[in-house]
Design goal:
Strand order of the largest sheet: 1-2-3
Order of helices and strands: HEEHHEH
Helix content: 40-55%
Number of strands: 3
Number of domains: 1
Structural class: alpha+beta
Strand content: 5-15%
Number of helices: 4
Length: 153
């Protein structure tokens, strides 16, 4: 009997729901380009739109990146269950998928990804909760795969 992917679903839901709620709050309360300091000069909430990829690179490729995201999501769903044998690795997969779908929804619904977390102390690109899920999930999964001995076939 195949198990229901509960841990993956939790990771997926946490990041997708938090991502979409925070984006709705930003879009409805902050005009494009506006910024609110949370800790002045360190952390701001800044409403930006991204039609590119990570860190705002390759602006204008919205549909190309949407198609690539769909391919990546399919690959993750098909390939990673074989390597994700712990709850941590399975949650990481869910986080990656939740983040990917969150940004993908933006691309299809809005025509751009809403980014708003603006760390100014290190001049880091503006990002969002979906990006946190993707990056933290990928790092966690990578560490898990590196540190877990693979069974030989």
């Amino acid at each position: 009997m195949k198990r229901f992917p509960l841990v993956e679903a939790i990771g997926f839901a946490v990041f997708l729901i938090c991502d979409q709620i925070t984006k709705i709050i930003v879009v409805h309360n902050l005009s494009y380009g506006a910024s609110i300091p949370i800790i002045d000069g360190f952390l701001h909430i800044t409403n930006t739109h991204n039609t590119g990829t990570i860190w705002g690179l390759a602006q204008g490729g919205n549909m190309i990146f949407a198609i690539l995201a769909i391919v990546v999501v399919i690959l993750i769903v098909v390939l990673t269950p074989k390597v994700a044998t712990t709850k941590i690795a399975r949650f990481a997969i869910g986080a990656i998928l939740g983040g990917a779908i969150g940004n993908l929804l933006d691309r299809f619904v809005r025509g751009f990804v809403v980014d708003f977390i603006d760390f100014r102390v290190i001049n880091f690109p503006v990002f969002n909760v979906a990006d946190i899920g993707i990056v933290c999930g990928a790092i966690t999964l990578g560490i898990f795969m590196f540190l877990t001995p693979q069974k030989s076939s």
